Amino acid sequence: MFNFSNLFRSLPTVSSILPVRYRARKCTRERKAKINKKNRAANLAKARKYIPLLKKKQLDKSSRTIETFPWRTSNDDVYLGLFNQMRRYNLLEAILAHRELHHPTMINMPNAPLNVRLEIDLTTDKKNKFVDKYHKIIELPHPYDHGEDRTIIAFCQSAEMMEEARNAGAMLVGGKDVIKSIESLPNKLRRRWRRFFVSVAQTSRWQCGTKVTQFAMMRAVISPNPAQCKKFSRGLIMLPDFQYVLAHPDILTELPAIRGLLRKRYPSLQHGSLTLDLVAMIKHYIKGIKYNMQVDPYDESLGIVEMKIGQLTDEPEHLIENFETLFKDIMTKAPKRAEQTQFIIRCLAQTPASKEKFNINLSPFISTEEDSESDSDSDDEDEIKKKQRI
C-alpha cells in the first residue's frame, strides 16, 4: 500500500525554497538609517517649498519683499499699499492713532486691547539651522490680568517654605510624600479602572447608570482641587492636572524618582523652575504674561510673536515700557551671526476690533539695546585691564 506521508515528506519545504535572510550588521543598519533620515528631510523640504496661491499673495506683502527694497517707498500722501512700503510710525503715534479710531464717535471701543505682532528672522550662520520655537513667561513693569487659571505643584523640604508657597498661590505643595504618591500613580489607577469596567460589563443595563455615577465620583476624588489638597493619599495625584512644576534645590535628591513621569517639565536651572527663591518664582508663574514664538508653516526662517501689551485706556508711557520689556526679552534669543543683521524685522500695532495696522519704527529700541551691550562690553574691558595692572 502506498504511503502518502512519505510523499509529503519528500516535497520541498517553504524554508528550503526561500532564500535565508540574515540580520544585517550594525554598521549597515546605521548607514541605512542615516540614508532614510536624509530622504525624509529632503521630502519635507520639498513639501515646504510648495506655497499655495493665497499664501504667495500674503508673502508679497510681507517684510521679506516690500520692506527690503528702498525704491518702493512712496513720496505721496495717498498710495497703493500693495506695491509700496508701509509708513513707519513711532509707538506713541500709533497708540494715539488707535485711540482716535476707537473713539466713541467712531468704533466706540475705547477699552480695546492693543496687540503687537513681531516678525523675527530665525536664520543663523548655518544654512539649514534656524532658531527653535519657544514660549516664555515675562514680568511686565505694568501688568494686566491675563485671565488664565494656572495650576502649580511645588516641591520643597521645610515646613515653613511649604506654608509660604501655599500662601503664594501654589495649588499643591509637598515633599517626599507627594513624590511617592506620584510615583505609584499609574499602577493604582490602572487597577482601579480595570475593576470598574469589569464590574460594568458584569452588570445589567438598568444598573449601568449607577456605575457611571460611581466612576464620575471616583474621577472627582482623583482630580486635585484646592479644597481637597489635604485629602490626597498615596497614588491619587495626576500630573496632567498641573501646568507647571517647580522645586527647591533641597529636594533635588528625591526628584529623580519621577523624572520619567515629568519628562520635559522636570525642574532645571535652564528653564528657571529650580530656584532658591521658590515663593518669588511661584508669583512669577502666576502673575507673569506668557507669549509664544511660532514658526511660519510655509517659511521656517520666519518667526512670529503676537502679544497684548495693554489697553488703549492705559497711559501711553506704560504701554511703551511694556513693549520695551518684551522687545529686550526677545532679543536675548538672537543668535550670534558673522554679518550683523536685524533679528526683529518688523513690528505691527493692531487691535482685534479693526483691520488697521501701524508699522512701528524699531530704531529707538535697537539703539538702546546696542548702547546697553556696548556699556557692558566696556565694563568688562575695564575689569580685564585692572586685573592685568595688578
From TrEMBL:
UniProt xrefs under SUPFAM superfamilies: Ribosomal protein L1 (SSF56808)
Region (Disordered): 364-390
Keyword Ribonucleoprotein set for record: yes
Swiss-Prot/TrEMBL keywords: Ribonucleoprotein, Ribosomal protein
GO cellular component terms attached to this protein's record: ribonucleoprotein complex; ribosome
Coiled coil: none
Listed Acidic residues bias regions: 368-382
Family: Belongs to the universal ribosomal protein uL1 family.
Entry protein name: 50S ribosomal protein L1, chloroplastic
UniProt organism field: Aphis craccivora (Cowpea aphid)
